[in-house]
Every structure is written in C-alpha cells, then in structure tokens.
Amino acid sequence: MSMYRQFYALQQVARRSISSSVRRQVENKVPQKQKVFQEDNGMPVHLKGGSADALLYRTTMALTVLGVGYVLFELVKAAFPQKK
Quick one: where is this thing mainly located (predicted)? Predict the structure, then answer.
C-alpha cells in the first residue's frame, strides 16, 4: 500500500510543478510561414524554406546518386567475378 502512496505523492508533486511553472507566450509564426509556402513564385515547395532546405536537398541527391552508383558497381562486381 505504501508504494501506491509514494506513487500518488510523486504524481501530485509533478502535477504541481508543471501547472505552477511560468508559461511563456510564443509568437504564432504559422500565418507568415503559410504566406511563404503558398506564394506562387515557381519555386518547388521543398526549396521554399531557404538555404538550409537547398543544402539538405543537394546533400540528399548527392548521397542518392553515390548510393545508386555503388549498388551498380557491386552488382557488376558480383555478376562478373574475378578469375583466379
């Protein structure tokens, strides 16, 4: 029974500390982001986030091309084994 009391007390302390903490007001940036992403400027949506998105996109494409090249290399190596 004492284990349940301890658990209940821990719940109460956690609830009290969460509810009494000061809440910061965070500015809602969704309307500005919606404007940017819905703007018809001919740019693909996956690049509208800025330079970080462009870098992430190019890195992903480079890794994809390298991965496909490596897979093809391994397939050719497996299809034509070296003679001893």
Answer: mitochondrion
Evaluate whether 13 touches 2 at the Cβ level (below 8 Å). no
Radius of gyration of the chain (CA): 28
| 65 within a domain of the structure (yes/no) | yes
Per-residue pLDDT band at 52 (split at 50, 70, 90):
very high
Give a yes or no: residue 79 inside a domain.
yes
Q: Evaluate whether residue 4 is within a structural domain.
A: no
Please give the residue range of the domain that contains residue 69: 43-83
Which residue in the block uniquely carries the two structure tokens 């956690």? 14
83 has a pLDDT exceeding 90: no
In a domain? residue 59:
yes
Contact 31, 19 (CB under 8 A): no
pLDDT in tens, 18-50: 555 566 788 999 999 999 899 999 989 888 888
